[in-house]
Structures are given as C-alpha cells and as structure tokens.
Write a structure and sequence with these properties.
It catalyses: isopentenyl diphosphate + (2E)-geranyl diphosphate = (2E,6E)-farnesyl diphosphate + diphosphate. This protein is mainly alpha-helical. It contains 13 helices and two strands, in the order H-H-H-H-E-E-H-H-H-H-H-H-H-H-H. Strand 1 and strand 2 form a beta hairpin. Helix 1 packs antiparallel against helix 2. It is globular and about 55 Å long. The chain binds geranylgeranyl diphosphate.
C-alpha cells in the first residue's frame, strides 16, 4: 500500500471517529456517517495529501485538513440532492441521505458535517495555532459566500434562462473549483511552500478544477449515450450549457487536452523545487475513462 492510500485510510478513520463522538443524537451520528461511508473518489483529500507529498512534508499533518474538506464536500452533496435543489434519489451508488433519513435529518446531517469539519482541524495536535487559523480561513472562505455557496446560488439562478460560456465558467469556478483550489492552498500553508511554489500550484489548482468539470461534462454525455444506446456525438440532449453543448464532444476533449498540457507545463516549471510526480498523478487520474 502506498503512503497516500495509507493516509486516505487514516483520514477516513479520523472522520468516522470524530462523528461517532456524539452521545446526544444517534440519528445525526448515523445520518452523518451514512453519507461518508457511501464512498466517493476522495479526490479532494487526495489533492491535499499529494500536495504535501510533493512538498516533502509529513502527510499526517494534512490528515485533519483532508478530513475537513471531504466533510464539507459531502455536506454539499447531501444538500445538493435535496428536493429543494437537485432532488436526486441516488448518490455514490446509494440512496441519497434524505431518502433514507428524511429531509429534516438530511439538512441537519449536512449542517453537522460542515460545522464539525472546523472542529476536526481545531482538534489536530500536529498543527500550530497559526496554521490552524490560516487553514480554516482558506477552508471557510472557499466553502462560503466567496466560493461554493455563491457558485451554487449562481447555478440555481442560471437554471431559469440560458447562460453564456463565461457565466458557466464562473459558476464552476466557484461551485466546484473553489474547494479544489482550497485543497492546494491549505496544503501549501501546512507544508510551508515558498511563495513561488504556492503561486504556481494555485494556477495548477485552477486548471485541475476546470479539467474536473470538463471531464464531468464529457462523462455525463458519454454515459448517457451508452445508456440510451445512441450514437456518440449525435445528441447533447438537455438544454443545459456545458462544455460539450458549447464545443461539441470532440471540442470538449480538445479543451481537456490543451488544459492538461498547460497544467503539466506549470508543474514542470517547478520540478527542480518540489517533487511534482504526485501532482502529475492527479492529472493522470483525471484522464482515466475519458
Ligand atoms: C448545496 C451548498 C451546496 C453546494 C452544492 C458541488 C456542489 C455544490 C454540488 C454538486 C453538484 C455536482 C454533481 C457537480 C458536478 C461536479 C461534482 C462536484 C461532482 C461530485 O464530486 P465528485 O465527483 O464526487 O468528487 P465523489 O462522490 O466522488 O466525492
């Protein structure tokens, strides 16, 4: 087992142990743990840990931060699935939180994951108070009105009328990009990266966020096409603006490849300063199944 995988297991245990420490509400405990245990790729914790590995810093120092970002991500998915938002029945291959526990409990489970994420970082004995404050500042900024929450609001407002590609990019930049950027920025604080390295890694993080979204849009179409037994490229069926609806499937693949090379070049520009391989591996992961 490699060190990132071992750390991801430790992060998982940290989240569950933290959530189990609730002798007041068994229901909140079960509902919060349910969505964490439902699975997921753990992409954001992997980004935190891979950045620390690249910086040559002990991975344990990133465990609480990796746990916190996954808790916030999971809360956002629970709330996104609610009837008032996307009204989804399945998430991570399992019934959504509100389908199992009811809407009121799902709202509270999401609130709980958000709130407790900060306490996980605060409880970390590996981090100095200075690092904790800086990490929490970045985490909460990107989760809140300067990040994911405003992105989600823009997305909801954009559903009622067609949006431009620039508006779409802005929505993604906040809705999904913000948490991804936070992973790198927090790891740079913990791993004491130089300003030069931090700046380059922040650019790389923005590119990873966009790659993540283009990939999601491509897979959405490809899996729908497979499901419906249709001919790839013939149909971008709903009228949502996506990278595929704007550029076509081939165009979206091209956008992906171009950005992938740019992100690789950014990493290569600092390869004498840090070990860029774990961050290159993230880019390679994004290519899998495309
Ligand atoms: C409700 C506050 C609030 C925010 C919701 C991120 C978000 C904001 C909603 C998710 C909607 C969505 C499906 C976006 C597409 C890209 C995305 C974030 C997919 C889910 O992330 P993955 O693929 O999921 O990392 P796993 O399950 O692997 O963790």
């Amino acid at each position: 087992m490699n060190d990132i995988k071992q750390s991801l297991d430790a992060v998982e245990r940290l989240i569950i142990t933290h959530l189990k420490d609730n002798d007041i509400s068994e229901t909140i405990k079960r509902a919060s743990i349910y969505s964490i245990e439902a699975g997921g790729k753990r992409f954001r914790p992997t980004m935190v840990l891979s950045t620390l590995k690249a910086l040559g810093y002990p991975l344990e120092h990133g465990h609480s931060t990796a746990a916190a970002i996954e808790m916030i991500h999971t809360y956002s998915l629970i709330h996104d699935d609610l009837p008032a938002m996307d009204d989804d029945d399945l998430r991570r291959g399992q019934p959504t939180n509100h389908k199992v526990f009811g809407e009121a409990t799902a709202i509270l489970a999401g609130d709980n994951l958000l709130t407790e994420s900060a306490r996980v970082v605060i409880s970390d004995d590996n981090l100095s108070d200075d690092k904790k404050i800086k990490v929490l500042g970045v985490l909460l900024k990107n989760a809140g009105q300067k990040g994911m929450i405003s992105g989600q609001m823009l997305d909801i407002e954009g559903e009622t009328s067609p949006i431009t590609l620039d508006e779409l990019a802005q929505i993604h930049n906040y809705k999904t990009g913000a948490l991804i950027r936070a992973c790198i920025e927090m790891a740079c604080i913990i791993g004491e990266a130089s300003d030069d390295v931090t700046n380059t890694l922040n650019r790389y993080a923005t590119e990873v966020g966009v790659l993540f979204q283009i990939r999601d849009d491509i897979l959405d179409v490809v899996s729908n096409v497979e499901e419906l037994g249709k001919n790839i490229g013939s149909d971008v069926s709903n009228n949502k603006t996506t990278y595929v609806s704007e550029y076509g499937l081939e165009g979206a693949y091209e956008q992906f490849d171009t950005l992938y090379e740019t992100a690789m070049d950014h990493l290569k520009s600092i390869e004498t300063l840090i070990s860029v391989e774990p961050l290159m591996a993230i880019l390679e992961k994004l290519k899998i199944n495309l």
